[in-house]
Every structure is written in C-alpha cells, then in structure tokens.
Specification:
binds zinc ion, 25% helix, 4-stranded antiparallel beta sheet, 6 helices, alpha+beta, single chain, 10 strands
Length: 280
C-alpha cells in the first residue's frame, strides 16, 4: 500500500503536471467509486485545479468550491491518462480537463474495490469525512503531543503507528522501518515509552520519511512496495544493515512485522505462533 512518502511525492508530481488546468468533468466508472452524494462534482467544472495535496495516505485534488479526496487503498493508482479509453482496465473514475492534455484516471486492480473518491467542500475538507478522524501527520508531530497520545492509548507500538487515528500516513512498511531506526521492539507498549520514547520515535519517523521521500522524488511514478528501500521491511532472513544480526518476522494474516533482535529486542526472538511460520 502506498504510504506517506509515496503519496506525497505523487501529489507533488501531479501538481507539477496538472495545476492550473480547468476541470471539464468528473466521470465515475463504477457505481462504488464516488462515496458522497453531495456536493456534486460538477461544482468544480470550469474551475482550475489549485493543486494536489496530501493528508495521511489520501490525495486531495483541490478546486473551488469542492475538493476530491482520493484513497488508493491497496491496489489503487491515480494515473496520467493519455488514452481515455471507454473501458480502462480497473478504471474507477476519471477527471477530464478542458484542453487536449491527458486526463487523470483512478484505477484499482483486483476485486476488492476499496479505493474511492469523496467530493467535499474545500473549506471543510480537513474536518469532514473521510479526513476528520485522522490523527496528526506522523512526519510533523511534536514529541510532546506523541507522548500524550502514547499515554492516552497503551497498545503495541507497531499497531499504534499503523492506526491512522493515532498518527496519519504510516503503514506496514514505515512502521517496521521507524521502529528499527528507533531501536524499539514492535511489541513495546506505548504506555510505557514515556517522553524519551516519544522523542526517539519522532526522530526515527522523520528520518524514515525523509529517506522514503528522497527515493520517491527521484522517480517518475509511484513505486511498488517491492522496490522501496528499507532496512528491515521485506528483508526476513537477510542481515541487519546496522548490526549484521538476522532480520526476523512475525506474520499476521494481512502483513508482516519485521525487526532485528539485536537492535530492537535485546536479542529476543519474538513469538510467531501463526500458521505461516514455515514460510519464514
Ligand atoms: Zn540490527
């Protein structure tokens, strides 16, 4: 799934290419693509795209008076669409602009159909669904605020970081990378990390995001997960680049927690009681 660095760099590329262009129409290509009934998308017709922003893992196509909020979920992509074919593969929705240039096309491969578009008044976009529930941006939260959130909700730090209501923008990959940089166990309880732990996590988050952004900004399109650089994520069985110990995994049904025992758990190998242990 695209996380904050991928979405941010993609928003910057789309702003570069599409800002200032006039929206001619918005075309849902499936019944489920548009999640809102009003305001109507045609309120933006004839208006220039102000920019493409980001909040958490969402892309924001900002017009006056409405903004299109786009969530890519697992397999969604917002693509530059030069062909504008009648039935594009995996097509969910299309933004057509008022000149001969390309359109923007939301696609989602697979059958889950979870990517979507919300049309929201621009002046309320940050406080309306679907963005209203998001926590502060992970990359800019202050240590004191993170410490307060740790104290409010004691849970495993890996789950806390991935919960968009705690902090926004972090997914499975970044959570693994942040905790490795912070030298904190993915199973550590947030209620016990305190101010020092929060400060460490803030620094690690900024470093991991900066590394991800540097990579994504050097690309012409959004990376796929397997291409993204990382120290532990997706590196089960490989040596830790910091200490040389073997990167370990705890498998869950939807994701993998990767960590280095020497760097993060005092050498302890975390219990992996799931059926997929033989795949490690
Ligand atoms: Zn290590």
């Amino acid at each position: 799934m695209p996380e904050m660095p991928e979405v941010q760099a993609h928003a910057e590329r789309l702003t570069e290419e599409f800002a200032g262009r006039t929206l001619r129409r918005f075309v849902p290509l499936t019944f489920t693509a548009l999640k809102t009934a009003r305001p109507a998308p045609d309120e933006a017709y004839g208006q220039p795209l102000l920019d493409v922003g980001r909040r958490g893992k969402y892309l924001l196509l900002r017009f006056e008076p409405v903004t299109f909020v786009v969530h890519l979920m697992q397999g969604g992509r917002l693509l530059v669409d030069t062909k504008q074919s009648a039935k594009p593969r995996g097509g969910q929705a299309r933004w057509v602009f008022g000149d001969d240039g390309p359109a923007l096309l939301l696609t989602e491969q697979g059958t889950e159909r979870r990517a979507g578009v919300w049309c929201v008044p621009t002046e309320d976009v940050l406080t309306a669904l679907p963005l209203e529930r998001l926590g502060p941006e992970a990359a800019t939260i202050e240590p004191s605020e993170l410490a307060a959130r740790f104290a409010d909700r004691s849970m495993r730090i890996h789950g806390f970081l991935r919960d968009q209501r705690s902090v926004a923008g972090v997914g499975r990959r970044l959570a693994n990378e942040i905790l490795h940089r912070a030298k904190i166990s993915p199973f550590a309880m947030t209620g016990k990390l305190g101010a020092a732990g929060a400060a460490t996590v803030v620094t690690a988050t900024r470093d991991a995001v900066a590394a991800g952004l540097a990579y994504e900004r050097g690309r012409d399109d959004m990376s796929s997960s397997k291409d993204r650089p990382g120290r532990v994520h997706g590196r089960t069985g490989e040596p830790c680049p910091v200490c040389g110990d073997t990167v370990r995994a705890v498998e869950y049904s939807g994701y993998t927690v990767n960590y280095c025992p020497t760097c993060q758990t005092g050498g302890k190998v975390l219990a992996d009681n799931t059926t997929s242990r033989f795949l490690r």
